[in-house]
């Protein structure tokens, strides 16, 4: 097969994922991103169901789409209603789009048990709705809901639904695995049966309840489907929809179907993360192709192989989908991991020297004490720099103290006690000792405030750095409050983000280690070529 139409339903089906609610502005911006990557059809929503989608289609008229066609979604007419008087169909006709998709039942049991009408009336509903919308000059796609489940129970009726839609001059018949429980071999049989009774292009719309949505979509393509429906990151109701971020590169890179240009495919990781941000969801690091861990390598044997042959432990070049290779450092690493990561940082360690081996032993020792560097690369980078004999840290801890006070209230206000945290920090910057104190909302916040108060006098640009996330992991639950704890802090300067780690039996010390690393790492990065050079003169402007 040489041609596939990509149909995105993130803005409707994807928005049905629990916890996701796109604003109209979100939907407009995602539409523009999908257009940039070259998606052929973008389903914007259901204008007959809610005011937000009506607003979206009105405002979408101002979008300058270059590669995509906007689609409005709806359903067939209601039971025993007239198509020309059906509010849903009228909303579709007035949505000011050229393409609409309507959903209708293709399963006998769905018709009798859910619609509670006759099989003939369901066929009339489908035909009437398609004919009405075609008479309005619209391109019409028909989502045959529950097609595969219906095919298992009564294949003759399910195929008759397709024939009726064909007779009404539908433009594409989309076969839906609505409950997401069909197996790939069953998909193949049903799609081939549909291909045998109609020449209308077929589409596939798969859900992921059995973790088979991507596999089922590819099986349908092999069996003759030419329109592929799915969502970015596989977002959708229950377990989600078919994931376009997995389907698209597989079609192009594995099956030889040129559904996107190379340049647009390279935008896929960016689009994936953009939609995650708009959905207010953390990107799945382990998502195929586009996840930050999709091309990460931890085992020393793997990294050694990659150094000799790039394809030894990864199935594609990550840059093809806009991603990148990452070499992780941990107790499972070998010297080659250390050398590779140091080279990425611009630090050349002698391949035959003892420096890499010393660093490796240091990492293994620290990880035995609770540190973990595969997701705290900033802390590992600091380990490398600190191992250099000429490295001078931008600041050094002399001492710190944290006081937490419980301010009691009168008996009538018990349960409303105030907790006051105050931190005192003494750091050395150059030859100067700076002693500061600050209050905060908790001991870590107080430490952060006190440390910044000292450092901002010398490095005012540190004001750009903020703490984004703070995670605590108990490593030895069996020993209760004496457990070793790991603290991971994520920081950002508004452009880049980085993670640092600290570990101790004292949660305040673990927090301090991660916090100090986060600021030292940023200051170190500013010394890199092309970045402003940090000075310890407090008279210099940021």
Notes on the protein architecture:
This protein has 542 residues and is α/β, with parallel strands linked by helices. It has three domains: 5-278, TIM Barrel (Alpha-Beta Barrel), CATH 3.20.20.70; 296-386, no CATH class; 395-458, Double Stranded RNA Binding Domain (2-Layer Sandwich), CATH 3.30.160. It is 37% helix and 20% strand. The protein contains 18 helices and 16 strands. It has helices at 24-37, 51-59, 87-93, 108-115, 119-135, 147-153, 155-167, 184-197, 213-223, 244-254, 262-265, 268-278, 300-308, 335-344, 355-368, 377-386, 443-455, 507-525, and strands at residues 5-8, 41-45, 69-75, 99-105, 139-145, 172-177, 202-206, 227-230, 296-297, 326-327, 396-407, 418-429, 432-440, 466-474, 485-492, 497-504. The strands form four sheets. An eight-stranded parallel beta barrel has the order 1-2-3-4-5-6-7-8, surrounded by nine helices. Helix 3 links the parallel strand 3 and strand 4 (99-105). Helix 14 (335-344) crosses helix 15 and helix 16 (377-386) packs across helix 18 (507-525). The longest helix has 19 residues, at 507-525. The two termini are 58 Å apart. 42% of the residues are buried. Mean pLDDT is 86; it is low at 528-542.
Produce the secondary structure layout.
Blueprint (H helix, E strand, L loop, with lengths): L4 E4 L15 H14 L3 E5 L5 H9 L9 E7 L11 H7 L5 E7 L2 H8 L3 H17 L3 E7 L1 H7 L1 H13 L4 E6 L6 H14 L4 E5 L6 H11 L3 E4 L13 H11 L7 H4 L2 H11 L17 E2 L2 H9 L17 E2 L7 H10 L10 H14 L8 H10 L9 E12 L10 E12 L2 E9 L2 H13 L10 E9 L10 E8 L4 E8 L2 H19 L17
Parallel strand pairs: 1-2, 1-8, 2-3, 3-4, 4-5, 5-6, 6-7, 7-8, 9-10
Antiparallel strand pairs: 11-12, 12-13, 14-15, 15-16
């Amino acid at each position: 097969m040489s041609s596939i139409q990509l149909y995105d339903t993130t803005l409707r089906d994807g928005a049905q994922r629990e916890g996701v609610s796109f604003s109209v502005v979100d939907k407009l911006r995602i539409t523009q991103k999908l257009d940039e990557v070259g998606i052929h059809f973008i389903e914007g929503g259901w204008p007959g169901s809610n005011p937000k989608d009506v607003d979206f289609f009105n405002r979408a008229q101002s979008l300058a789409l270059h590669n995509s066609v906007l689609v409005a979604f709806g359903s067939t007419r209601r039971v025993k209603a007239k198509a020309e008087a059906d509010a849903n169909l009228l909303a579709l006709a007035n949505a000011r789009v050229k393409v609409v998709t309507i959903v209708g039942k293709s399963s006998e049991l769905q018709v009798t048990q859910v619609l509670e009408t006759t099989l003939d009336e369901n066929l009339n509903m489908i035909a009437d709705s398609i004919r009405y919308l075609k008479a309005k000059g619209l391109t019409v796609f028909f989502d045959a809901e529950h097609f595969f489940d219906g095919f298992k129970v009564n294949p003759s009726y399910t195929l008759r639904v397709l024939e009726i839609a064909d007779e009404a001059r539908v433009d594409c018949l989309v076969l839906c695995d609505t409950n997401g429980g069909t197996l790939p071999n069953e998909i193949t049989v049903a799609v081939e049966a549909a291909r045998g009774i109609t020449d209308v292009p077929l589409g596939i719309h798969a859900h992921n309840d059995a973790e088979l949505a991507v596999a089922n979509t590819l099986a349908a393509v092999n069996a003759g489907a030419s329109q592929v429906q799915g969502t970015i990151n596989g977002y959708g109701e229950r377990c989600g929809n078919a994931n376009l971020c997995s389907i698209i590169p597989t079609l192009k890179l594995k099956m030889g179907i040129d559904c996107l240009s190379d340049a647009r495919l390279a935008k896929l990781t960016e689009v994936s993360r953009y939609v995650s941000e708009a959905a207010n969801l953390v990107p799945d690091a382990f998502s195929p192709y586009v996840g930050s861990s999709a091309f990460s390598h931890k085992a020393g044997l793997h990294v050694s192989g990659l150094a000799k042959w790039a394809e030894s432990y990864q199935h594609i070049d990550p840059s093809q989908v806009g991603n990148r290779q990452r070499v992780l450092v941990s107790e499972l690493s070998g010297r080659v991991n250390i050398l590779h990561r140091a080279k990425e940082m611009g630090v050349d360690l002698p391949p035959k020297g003892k420096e890499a081996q010393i660093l490796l032993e240091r990492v293994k020792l620290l990880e035995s004490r609770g540190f973990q560097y595969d997701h705290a690369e900033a802390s590992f980078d600091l380990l490398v720099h600190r191992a250099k004999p000429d490295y001078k840290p931008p600041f050094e801890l002399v001492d710190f103290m944290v006081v937490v006070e419980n301010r009691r209230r009168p008996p009538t206000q018990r349960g409303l006690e105030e907790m006051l945290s105050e931190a005192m920090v003494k750091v050395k910057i150059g030859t100067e000792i700076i002693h500061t104190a600050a209050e905060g909302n908790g001991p870590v916040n107080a430490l952060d405030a006190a440390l910044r108060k000292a450092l901002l006098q010398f490095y005012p640009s540190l004001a750009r750095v903020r703490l984004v996330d703070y995670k605590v992991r108990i490593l030895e639950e069996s020993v209760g409050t004496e457990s070793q704890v790991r603290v991971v802090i994520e920081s950002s300067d508004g452009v880049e983000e980085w993670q640092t780690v600290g570990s101790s039996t004292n949660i305040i010390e673990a927090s301090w280690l991660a916090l100090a690393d986060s600021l030292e790492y940023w200051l170190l990065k500013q010394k890199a070529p092309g970045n402003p050079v940090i000075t310890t003169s407090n008279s210099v402007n940021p």
